[in-house]
From TrEMBL:
<keyword id="KW-0482">Metalloprotease</keyword>
<dbReference type="InterPro" id="IPR014782">
    <property type="entry name" value="Peptidase_M1_dom"/>
</dbReference>
<dbReference type="GO" id="GO:0008270">
    <property type="term" value="F:zinc ion binding"/>
</dbReference>
<feature type="domain" description="Aminopeptidase N-like N-terminal">
    <location>
        <begin position="157"/>
        <end position="225"/>
    </location>
</feature>
<keyword id="KW-0645">Protease</keyword>
<dbReference type="Pfam" id="PF01433">
    <property type="entry name" value="Peptidase_M1"/>
</dbReference>
<keyword id="KW-0479">Metal-binding</keyword>
<dbReference type="GO" id="GO:0042277">
    <property type="term" value="F:peptide binding"/>
</dbReference>
<dbReference type="InterPro" id="IPR027268">
    <property type="entry name" value="Peptidase_M4/M1_CTD_sf"/>
</dbReference>
<dbReference type="GO" id="GO:0016020">
    <property type="term" value="C:membrane"/>
</dbReference>
<feature type="domain" description="Peptidase M1 membrane alanine aminopeptidase">
    <location>
        <begin position="266"/>
        <end position="472"/>
    </location>
</feature>
<protein>
    <submittedName>
        <fullName>Uncharacterized protein</fullName>
    </submittedName>
</protein>
<dbReference type="InterPro" id="IPR050344">
    <property type="entry name" value="Peptidase_M1_aminopeptidases"/>
</dbReference>
<dbReference type="InterPro" id="IPR001930">
    <property type="entry name" value="Peptidase_M1"/>
</dbReference>
<comment type="similarity">
    <text>Belongs to the peptidase M1 family.</text>
</comment>
<dbReference type="InterPro" id="IPR045357">
    <property type="entry name" value="Aminopeptidase_N-like_N"/>
</dbReference>
<dbReference type="GO" id="GO:0070006">
    <property type="term" value="F:metalloaminopeptidase activity"/>
</dbReference>
Length: 764
């Protein structure tokens, strides 16, 4: 496209393209005297080149949106926006706003109160610089039909989800994280519906008996955090520590709401208090509402003033497991931590999206501790992060924590276990290197320096590097900018008398690039009558450790006993065989958790046969006393049973597995949360006729599960499990379960899933 306002004949033009970016260097008759004009050609999505240009030339953005929300999904949302901003571009290039399908959805554009011509280019509205006032505030008004793509419209409610850059799928704006703006919103909603958004609201009568909500202007926030929800919601309010909290939800089970209500409000209150104390920054966004959405795509989304949650993650059943209870606390802490890390200070570009996610997960682990004194929190952190991170880093598709991003349309590909699980481990390493107080003080400086603005990972590293004796940029270069994990081995030097006079710890690069991952290790030397722990700082390819005078050769060596280390810890044959035998009887819960995870790596590396592994898992379950470890062993068991065993081997052990799991359900001393975990695992692995018949009796109410109250969700899962196992009366069971479900959202979900449960392959 020839940009408007640069219509003079070209003397020279050159185009450089990179991942969807088109940058055109143009020399005009005027430009030959004054130099080159760099024109950013709009492309699909939002390119880094376009975002960088706008961040340099646009400032102090304010939006005022007005939307009419109809009751029926067949009717569009009609709206208008007034965008005001400073504009100063010495090269007078086109102004580009983002809006999907603008040719079909834009009705009129006015610039500084004058209707103007505009050009549609991909997902953009392109305006000539001739109609703007350089160096002054400019006003762009757009009347439009909102796109449904990011509105998530249901029959009686809708909610926005604009992350990572989907705001322009529905609204015209500058859709990039480093053009923070103040958003004001007016919504006209149908009678009987309510609305919630980032700002506090005033209400007045609206058209046709509806309500008009006027939401106050926000603090500066990026476009992906602008949000609203409208529909048939119930509202619960609570006062805590001088603050009003409001919860919007669609749960029709009054007892379920009452059972969860206080815990949900209390967890938000304690998370806010902890973060205000840790950061020394008061909650920065005024009011605090949250919305529980039944079909929400994620666990939660951190819109300031209006957090959105997956309803089932907060509204727990009576049969909830400990993992689900802990998960709720962690999720609330995670989203609340985002108010500081991500919302108050936002990444400059989505290549650093991990910085907001790592701090949310990292802080959540700290916040949850006081509420669960009975939980082993170092074990909790290890189980929550290492296995899932290893699940990516052991593959050829491993990626660095920090990745290059040329266009925001690809930002969704950056999410995954590397930023959610590996990055918090790396951040704990960083805290360990600096010490807790210097690390905390560095974060406080970071928040104060960049509050309501944007920052990069190098910005933070520069602040922390002033507080460290370690070269943090070099440390970051391998842990953050590189993918993968080291392979760590331990070799013992044995004497002729059966003693040990040396320990060598080595790391190697599985890609053969000679990379080194500096980290603290804690070696555990296990004996029949005790253990010895040896600290190691491994920053080179190989490090020698003095085990002390007169040490015997241990039964096994566990190189990562502290649960903080990260890598493929390859055990020698003696250690592997001894751990398989001795691990269930070790005293320390963290050591057992780390040991099982290390052996699991051995299974996946082909060093331990699946049938032997399954046998040891059943032995471990019989002896395990800590619920967190039990739940992880149940996960290993399920994966081994369904994925690693052959069909014949699976059928051969099915009865033993079912009996072992049912004994866990039936043990009188089993706590309710663990009984629920055993029951869910049993339901997922039943194959025998006797087991299927027991499932049928439980679903039909002919048999109770001692000590466990089964919720509607449990009964739904049983009905689905019976159908998947091909019982002859599956349709009758599914019809009966549909009749049991009262909540309209859960009925809709069950109806959606039901064709996949059919015995008819054409219907599936």
């Amino acid at each position: 496209m020839t940009p408007t306002g640069l219509a003079m004949a070209f003397r020279f033009s050159g185009i450089v393209r990179n991942a969807g970016i088109a940058v055109i260097a143009v020399a005009t008759a005027q430009g030959c005297m004054n130099g080159m004009v760099s024109v950013v050609e709009p492309v699909e999505g939002v390119s880094w080149a376009l975002a960088e240009l706008r961040a340099e030339t646009i400032s102090a953005v304010r939006y005022r949106y007005r939307l009419q929300v109809p009751r029926g999904r067949e009717h569009p949302l009609e709206g208008a926006v007034v965008a005001e901003f400073g504009w100063s571009d010495p090269q007078a290039r086109d102004l580009v706003l983002d809006f999907k399908d603008p040719a079909d959805r834009v009705r009129v554009v006015r610039v500084n109160e004058v209707a103007v011509e505009w050009t549609a280019r991909f997902d953009h509205i392109v305006l000539s610089p001739d109609i703007l006032v350089a160096g002054e505030r400019n006003r762009v008004e757009v009347e439009f039909i909102a796109g449904d793509d990011a509105l998530n419209r249901n029959d009686d409610f809708l909610y926005t989800l604009f992350v990572p850059n989907r705001a322009h799928f529905s609204l015209p704006l500058f859709d990039q994280p480093n053009l923070k703006a103040r958003f004001a919103l007016t919504l006209e909603v149908p009678q009987g519906w309510v609305a919630v958004a980032n700002g506090s609201a005033t209400e007045s009568p609206g058209p046709d008996g509806g309500t008009t909500y006027r939401f106050a202007e926000t603090q500066p926030i990026p476009s992906y955090l602008f949000a609203f929800a409208v529909g048939d919601f119930q509202i619960e309010s609570a006062e805590r520590a001088g603050r009003t909290f409001r919860m919007f939800h669609r749960e029709t089970d009054v007892e379920k709401v009452g059972r969860n209500r206080e815990a949900i409000f209390d967890l938000h209150t304690s998370a806010l208090a902890w973060l205000e104390d840790y950061t020394q920054v008061a909650y920065p966004f005024g009011k605090f509402d949250f919305v529980l959405i039944p079909p929400f795509q994620y666990g939660g989304m951190e819109h300031p003033g209006s957090i959105f949650y997956l309803a089932s993650s907060l509204m727990l059943d009576e049969s909830a497991t400990q993992s689900q209870v802990l998960g709720r606390a962690s999720l609330i802490a995670h989203e609340t931590a985002h108010m500081w890390f991500g919302d108050l200070v936002t990444m400059n570009w989505f290549d650093d999206v991990w910085t907001k996610e790592v701090f949310a997960n990292f802080m959540a682990a700290k916040i949850a501790q006081p509420a669960f004194p009975e939980v082993h929190h170092d074990l909790r952190f290890f189980l929550a992060h290492h296995d899932r991170a290893y699940g990516v880093d052991r593959t050829a598709g491993s990626n660095p924590i920090r990745q290059q991003l040329d266009n925001l349309q690809d930002a969704g590909a950056l999410y995954g276990p590397v930023i959610y699980q590996k990055a918090p481990i790396v951040m704990r390493h960083l805290e360990q290197l600096l010490g807790e107080e210097p690390f905390r003080d560095g974060l406080r400086e970071y928040l104060q320096t960049f509050r309501y603005g944007n920052a990069t990972w190098p910005d933070l590293i520069a602040i922390l590097d002033q507080r460290s004796d370690v070269d943090l940029p070099a440390w970051s270069a391998v842990w953050v900018e590189e993918s993968g994990r080291p392979v760590v081995t331990v070799e013992l030097s044995e004497t002729r008398a059966g003693g040990m006079d040396g320990v060598t710890v080595s790391q190697s690069d599985p890609e053969g690039r000679n990379r080194l991952w500096p980290q603290h290790l804690e070696l555990l030397l296990g004996y029949a009558d005790g253990e010895i722990r040896l600290p190691v700082w491994l920053s080179v390819a190989s490090a020698s450790v003095d085990p002390g005078v007169g040490r015997r050769v241990p039964r096994f060596v566990l190189p990562n006993a502290a649960g903080l280390e990260y890598g493929l810890f390859r055990l020698d044959v003696r250690s592997r065989e001894a751990l398989l035998e001795a691990l269930p009887g070790l005293m320390d819960p963290l050591t057992r958790g780390v040991g099982w995870a290390t052996l699991w790596d051995g299974v996946l590396e082909g060093e331990i046969p699946p049938d032997l592994w399954l046998d040891r898992l059943l032995a471990g379950l019989a002896l395990e006393t800590v619920e967190q470890n039990t739940q992880r062993l149940l996960q290993y068991l399920g994966t081994t049973f369904w994925t690693l065993l052959s069909d014949d081997d699976r059928l051969a052990v099915a009865r033993d597995v079912e009996e072992s799991l049912w004994s866990g359900v039936a043990r009188a001393e089993t706590p309710t949360t663990l009984r629920a975990a055993y029951f869910q695992a049993w339901r997922g692995m039943v194959l025998s006729d006797a087991g299927i018949e027991r499932m049928r009796r439980i679903w039909g109410g002919e048999e109770e599960v001692s000590g466990l109250t089964l919720a509607e969700r449990d009964m739904t899962a049983l009905a689905e499990a019976l159908a998947l196992r091909g019982v002859v009366d599956a349709d009758a069971i599914l019809n009966g379960q549909m009749d049991r479900i009262d909540n309209p959202d859960r009925r809709a979900r069950f109806a959606f899933v039901r064709p996949a449960l059919s015995a008819d392959p054409l219907r599936r």
